[in-house]
Design brief:
Shape: elongated
Structural class: alpha/beta
Largest sheet: 6 strands, parallel
Helix content: 40-55%
């Protein structure tokens, strides 16, 4: 059982092979399919046997992983909505995706499952992690100003922070997003509230080792984003198969 996701990628695989695919009514992208042990047919692909076999593993592996991400996101989104119906924040993935083009599949799965993609790629937002700050001599203000001089007015800048002092410096220097990294939940909520009081327009992200079981502990009005790396590097895959018939 899980969320069906990845239909466009399966279609692309068999389109390249010049095979025709027809989908059953149950195969609606983003739908949670409850498989109670029975055989559920999602689609039929028509074409020469050698071409079907050529596309089989690529199509199934992509569908399996995309659905796995979408399912993890769906369960997370549903949990937060049920526990905190008035919370206006969002659960997001992180940059911890599969390298190369396959990251697109995982980012797509995040969206289908109801979570935020974070930034789509390195060019979408300037993200200053600890290594970037250290490369600037540990000076957060200097790092933010250098980033702004290159990024201009149109791009957001996010700074990873380990303490309230670092977060306030980042916000004061002009950071648009402040990431509170590897915090204990209660400490994070206290610091997030203090930051919002002084810089109400700054987006606050909670990150670092957060899981499905612990993410609800980080929710408060001052936290805008709760990000989890395991949504794209620790998900369980759904199992699909393709059977040849004459």
């Amino acid at each position: 059982s899980g969320v069906f996701a990845g239909k466009p990628f399966v279609e692309a695989v068999f389109d390249i092979l010049d095979c025709k695919i027809t989908w059953e009514d149950i195969a609606v992208e983003g739908t949670y399919i409850d498989n109670k042990g029975g055989k559920i047919v999602l689609a039929t692909v028509f074409g020469p046997c050698n071409l079907l076999l050529r596309g089989e593993r690529t199509a199934l592996n992509t569908l399996s992983r995309c659905s796995g991400v979408a399912t993890a996101c769906y369960l997370s989104s549903q949990k937060m909505k049920s526990m905190f119906p008035t919370w206006t924040g969002a659960v997001a993935g992180t940059r911890k995706t599969t390298p190369g083009a396959f990251r697109i599949v995982e980012k797509y799965g995040l969206i289908v499952g109801g979570c935020n993609t974070h930034r789509l790629d390195l060019s979408q937002m300037t993200m200053l992690k600890d290594n970037h700050i250290w490369a600037c001599g540990g000076d957060i203000t200097k790092a933010v100003k250098l980033a702004r001089s290159a990024a201009g007015f149109s791009q957001k800048i996010e700074v990873e922070c380990q303490s309230l002092e670092e977060a306030l410096e980042a916000a004061s220097a002009g950071a648009d997003v402040v990431m509170l990294d590897n915090y204990a939940p209660e400490e994070l909520k206290v610091d997030a509230t203090k930051i919002k009081e002084q810089y109400p327009t700054v987006i606050i992200e909670a990150s670092g080792g957060i899981t499905y079981d612990t993410m609800d502990q980080y929710v408060c009005d001052a936290v805008d984003i709760i990000s989890r790396g395991d949504l794209t590097h620790g998900y369980s895959c759904l199992d699909y198969s393709l059977k040849i018939q004459k």
